[in-house]
Predict the structure of 60S ribosomal protein L24.
Amino acid sequence: MAKLWLKLMERRKHKKGQEEEQTKRRTRRTQKFNRAIVGASLSDILAKRNMKPEIRKAQREQAVKAAKEQKKAAKAAKKATAPPKPKPTKKDKAAKVTQKSAPRVGGKR
């Protein structure tokens, strides 16, 4: 009985004339392409990519040095303009009045 059922399923699946109707599916190949990013044109990006690593490293170090100098100058200017802070005077601490907690009831714990 099981063989008959399988044979029926097989015949339904592979009907006569169905093979000719189906065509081979074509796969779509993806294409790689470069795009510009907002704020930088494609030519700028390609120029940076094709740059030699030594040049890029030197540029990075120069930018870091310039940023550090700017930060140092800003700190010095801020220090010069800020008025000296007066030293805070110590205040006498007032004794806090605390209520005694209620006695515990219930014997030994």
Residues 52-81 form one domain. The chain has a mean pLDDT of 83.
